[in-house]
Amino acid sequence: MISEGSAWHQYLAVAHNLIAAMPSEALAGLVVFSSKVDKNIPLSESRDDLQDELNALREGRKALPKGERLTAIWDALATADAEFDSHQEGDAIYAITDGGENASKLKMNSLRKTLLEKRIRLFTYVGFTFIGGPEFNGGLDLIDLSDATGGVGISTRRNDVGMLPALASGSGKPTPEGELLMAQYRQIFSFQRMEIQLPKALDKPQEWILKVTGTKAKDLTVVYPHKLAGCSKPAQGAAAKR
After folding, report:
1. Which domain holds residue 38?
2. Which of 41, 66, 145, 187 is the most exposed, having the fewest neighbouring CB atoms within 10 Å of its CB?
3. How far is residue 162's CA from residue 128's CA, in Å, rounded to a whole number?
4. For residue 142, what is the domain's CATH number?
């Protein structure tokens, strides 16, 4: 992504805007990665530190170590996931990527299981570069993973000269793509908790459908985890261990 010029600056703008939209009490961190994690800024309340880190990344290749740079998105998300040492309602990871994946040791299904169990929602902004081929599938899988965890995935397509759609017009007003991005931000910080009683415990992750009834509102979209995590098995007693 760092060699993409204007697209790289747009990725950074998405991150800057996300930080600016965060509630003051929210903790935030940053993971920068290629085939491995290059930077890992722990969760904190400091917005200035994160903005400074993003500003430093405007230099692209000059700001990061030299050498071959593959893409290990699943491994990087696992690094971000590990920062959540204690669960809080609304925990979320936001991934900004061009859709490539060609270096992870971790499998997506393993990552999905962890995110569901820890109730961490994944939100994504994918500026697709690889149309077709195995790398392209990384972006498609990210969108599916976002849906599974209760997040929202945004995918964009390049124009004929490889440019991503602008987020704001010349007058500074949000474009339709910019409006979509702001709606995604609101989904991150505005959420509700529901308690649902199941007829039986789940021994493995399972898909389910949640619908809203009793309202005539149109164009109502419900964002929720499309997969339920399986219940952990109860610990066996000492007698059973013998």
Report:
1. 6-189
2. 66
3. 10
4. 3.40.50.410
Most distant CA pair in the chain, distance = 73
Report the mean per-residue pLDDT for the chain: 85
Q: Which of 133, 132, 153, 157 has the alpha carbon at shortest distance from 144?
A: 153
Q: Which of 130, 132, 115 is nearest to 225 (CA)?
A: 115
Q: In this structure, is residue 77 part of a structural domain?
A: yes
pLDDT at 159: 74
pTM of the full structure: 0.87
Count: domains in the chain: 1
CB 186 within 8 A of CB 154: no
Q: CA-to-CA distance for 129 and 97, rounded, in angstroms?
A: 9
Residue 217 lies in a domain: no
Q: What is the pLDDT of residue 134?
A: 52
Query: Which tokens go with 84?
Result: 């959540």
pLDDT in tens, 48-104: 999 999 999 988 877 787 777 788 999 999 999 999 988 888 999 999 998 888 889
pLDDT for the residue 239: 40
Asked if the structure places residue 52 within a domain, the reply is yes
The tokens of 182 are what?
A: 């702001």
